[in-house]
Design brief:
It is built from eleven helices and five strands. The chain is α/β, with parallel strands linked by helices. The protein has a five-stranded mixed beta sheet, with helices on both faces. The radius of gyration is 25 Å and the shape is elongated.
Amino acid sequence: MKVVAETLGVSRSNLHARMTGSTKPRRRYHKAQDAVVLPLLTALVAARPTYGYRRITALLNRQLRAEGAAPINHKRTYRIMQAHNLLLARKYTERPELTHEGKVVTMRSNIRWCSDGFEFTCWNGEIIRGAFIIDAHDREIISWRAVVNAGISGSDIRDMMLEAVEKRFGTFRAHHPVEMLSDNGSPYIARETRIFARQLGLKPCFTPVKSPQSNGISEAFVKTLKRDYVHVTPLPDAATVLELIAGWFEDYNDNHPHSGLKMRSPREFIAAQTATA
């Protein structure tokens, strides 16, 4: 038996148990303390139906720490959610073979800002179009604009840039050059916009042709916006939606756990960075 066990790479006791039929079947996962966690998980999943188990874990641990309780491991969250059918359905898609041209993420805040647009249709047919500026390091949405049944203009982009500079630097000009990354849309490449950007201390940068993934941080946020907010919210008309958009951006900045920020929200990450500075 020793030779057989060594050949198979298993212990002799394991082999003996299999031969005699004395191995115990694996029981279904169960932990008595899960009864306390389950209602909290159920409430979070109901409130955030598009969140996977890792983001749900981040929100749950945030709540547990606030109550003075110990956090739980994401693997335990997965097992509990799996046992009670709370996991998201897997979605399989083939990714296109596109090359990534350019490094987007930065090592500090206010080194590179990214900007892009978004669009969705209300139930009554009205179209909401908007644009935003997001920091490539801390992922906070600094400023945004939205319009109804029209396109985002160069004036909207310039107003958004000015607001972003005022929020981050408290003045009308950045303290150091900040790269402003966007696609090649007409509002961004307009001569007036490029001149205004430089006056604010921004350095306009544009993604290569046919390479939108080079502005991947903006693209990822648009996906998050539609998945976690647009697709799970009633959109009867533009007037109603315009009142909701500000709340969506605030919720994202304050609460959305980001894998690139160690499952912290943008403002949690900024606060932690400020505390250690």
